[in-house]
Specification:
The protein is mostly beta strands. The protein has a single domain, classed as Sandwich (Immunoglobulin-like). The protein is built from one helix and 15 strands. The chain is flat, with a radius of gyration of 22 Å.
Length: 220
């Protein structure tokens, strides 16, 4: 993965694939009706890639591409797995949240997403390098899931290589960053001004008739 020529807003599409050890090809259980869990984690179609990042804040737009796996996202310093590495969530499928949410939470939980869901992360690599001496980070999925039905709910320990989604490698010196710090308690999503009450109300009734869909009793 590369950020050359790109902004600090990066999409990360998460998927898992089941690999046939005999052929090295992707395989699929045609008789499995409870979903499919792969044994390899991919980001943007690449098996556990790395990304060189500058010492500034980045926004990662994360999508759970399925088909069946849930994710609970954590950051881990592989050189010191016992460190708690903070990050923020600022948006989900419904777009911006009312205020940034810090992770991991006081309960120890990470940012969880299900199939086809989206979450936007803010990671401040400048602050992590300065305050915690971080040189590289792993974005991990620590949520245990043994079948396609649902996760078990168990949170796996930090620092397991098989749980790594992508490795961030911090390079260079700190750079200018005009983005807003989500750790600032004054950062809030401001609601739009109230809109006038509409004077005209229209009603649409969708129904089936004569084998086709109708709106208010009329064919579309």
């Amino acid at each position: 993965m590369s950020t050359r020529g790109c902004s600090a807003s990066i999409p990360l599409a998460l998927t898992d694939k089941l690999i046939d050890p005999g052929t090295g090809k992707i395989c699929f259980d045609l008789f499995g009706f409870d979903g499919l869990i792969g044994d390899k984690l991919l980001v943007n179609g690449v098996l556990q890639p790395f990304l060189e990042v500058q010492k500034r804040r980045y926004r990662f737009r994360v999508l759970d591409g399925g088909p069946s796996r849930f994710y609970e996202l954590f950051l881990t310093n592989p050189d010191n797995p016992k460190q708690t590495i903070p990050f923020f969530v600022i948006a989900n499928d419904g777009n911006l949240l009312p205020a940034p949410v810090g992770f991991p939470m006081s309960s120890g939980s990470g940012a969880r997403i299900g199939v086809a869901e989206r979450v936007d992360l803010i990671i401040d690599f400048k602050k992590l390098a300065r305050d915690l001496g971080v040189k590289r980070l792993w974005l991990e999925n620590r949520l245990e899931q043994v079948n396609g039905r649902a996760p078990t709910g168990k949170i796996l320990p930090a620092g397991r290589r098989e749980d790594v989604l992508v490795e961030f490698r911090l390079v260079g010196n700190s750079v200018r960053d005009n983005s807003v710090d989500p750790a600032d308690p004054t950062v809030r999503f401001y609601a739009l001004p109230s809109r006038p009450v509409p004077r005209i109300t229209r009603r649409f009734r969708f129904e089936r008739g004569n084998g086709q869909w109708q709106v208010n009793g009329r064919f579309m």
